[in-house]
Amino acid sequence: MRTPTQTWPDDLAQSYRDKGYWKDETFGEWLERLARSFGPRTALVAGDTRLTYDELLAEAQAIAGGLLASGLNTGERVLVQLPNSARFLPVVLGVLYAGLLPVYALPAHREREILHLAQGSQARAYVVAARHEGFDYAPLARQALADCPDLVTAYIDGEAEGLVPLSRLRDAAPLRAPAQVDPASVAFLQISGGTTGFPKLIPRTHNDYIYSFEASAPICGLTQESALLIALPAAHNFPMSSPGYFGALSVGAKVVMSLSPAPDACFPLIGAERITHTGLVPPLALLWMQAAAKTKHDLSSLEVLGVGGAKFTPEAAARVRPTLGCKLQQVFGMGEGLVNYTRLDDPEEIVIGTQGRPISPDDEILLLREDGTPVAEGEPGVLHTRGPYTIRAYYNAPEANRRAFIEGGYYCTGDIVRLRPGGYLEVQGRAGDHINRAGEKVSAEEIEDHLLAHEAVFDAVVVAVEDRFLGERSCAFVVLEDGAEVKPPALKAFIRARGIAAFKVPDQIVFIDALETTAVGKTDRRKLRAQLKEKHFA
Ligand code: OOB
């Protein structure tokens, strides 16, 4: 079944095949090929679990067999919400092997996001952890089952009333051959950072995604001898494919999962597993650099630190080698596709001062002024892109598609970028209205809507404010109803109780008397955000 989505024009698709980017191989076939090539080598280390490539395939086959025996049909969606545990990769690979589509949720997601993801993807099954970072997922899973008519089963990595233990999937016979699906069809759905009220779903195909991480592996210097530490939440595109665990597995390297990105969890793993590569968002890179000065753990195996998800300042970038003793690789990517890397042999000035250049010679870059005309050489503009692994449309979102894609199928990233000689991109800012909070994208509009739901709130405007540690933090300007009273902690607690990921709760709340609506029309939220930010934080 081909999941409905707009796709690449036939002539381009053909040229991507002719050039060897698209290999017409499915994830299931890819996994079999890995087991054939690297069978007895270590594929995965997570906690006490160590799996070879052969064992990883067997695990995936067991899970795939169980899922299909439960009545799921090829092409149906499975919501996966797991931390970086030993289960994550076997489950995701099992879902893919069965020809089902994983829908990736973050462990931080709560009722709102989970219901939105499950309903938006019409997920039939949900695989969830029992506990992570003190949160009990069982009530969340029971609620999803109650509220989502398409959802028939929730599997829990443990035991809880009303939910099926994940281990039960092993009762069925393993699936011995990967499901036959079209390699040009959608393989999985990922959540977008998004600037609109609710995150959109990003459909990635087998062909485009496998190309993106297989082409990334050599750019990042991964070989069979490498060991990649996954410190960021595994459901994010960055740790998944830039080069990510998929890129590492594609060359026979070892993937090591950490449940936490904190230095005290990761540094011992680096020493014990002789980690050569890892990827971090800028705030974590800062934290690691600070902690490295005092650590007793041996970090000498580290060769490459990838940093991306948000802008890494040149000052911080320059400190990577002196503090961590490894090369820096800047990574500027997006779940929608395009990924740029500085190259490992680039001069220092490029590595520190740019966000890299695209993976593919066929990634097309178009920088436009606000009026839609192309910029002059060297002038900054809004980055638009298309290519062999950049989506042509969001999943079932005609209205969002009209805004996010322009003629010729270019995706409007919303990033303001300057193009340097050699095709290197320098990210200078952003046109869209979201907060890039330590790499997590938070939609201003989504949070404004939650604030407006409080009875004491007359109006609210959420803006991104520069933050020394987070890169950006969220600040909510709130106008209260006449005579109403509420304190910031109570308002934050109200937002949290609405069932959203904790990283979306405003970091700061500023009460103001009125929104200045004289200069701009009341409905122009974007101008209002800019005006308030200018007045309070310039
Ligand atoms: C990654 O993916 P998303 O989808 O969470 O966010 C994409 C957005 C970009 O449009 C840009 O605004 C920002 O995140 N971003 C950066 C950046 N890397 C991402 N801004 C400045 N400098 C960078 N290095 O964040 C993502 C996906 C794959 C690889 C790496 C990051």
From TrEMBL:
UniProt KW keywords: Ligase
Gene3D superfamilies for the chain: 3.30.300.30, 3.40.50.980, Luciferase, Domain 3
Keyword Cell membrane: no
Cited InterPro entries: AMP-bd_C, AMP-bd_C_sf, AMP-binding_CS, AMP-dep_synth/lig_dom, ATP-dep_AMP-bd_enzyme
Domain AMP-binding enzyme C-terminal stretches: 446-522
Keyword Repeat belongs to the record: no
GO MF annotation, one: acid-thiol ligase activity
Pathway it works in: Siderophore biosynthesis
AMP-dependent synthetase/ligase domain: residues covered: 32-395
Protein name as catalogued: AMP-dependent synthetase and ligase
Organism: Celeribacter indicus
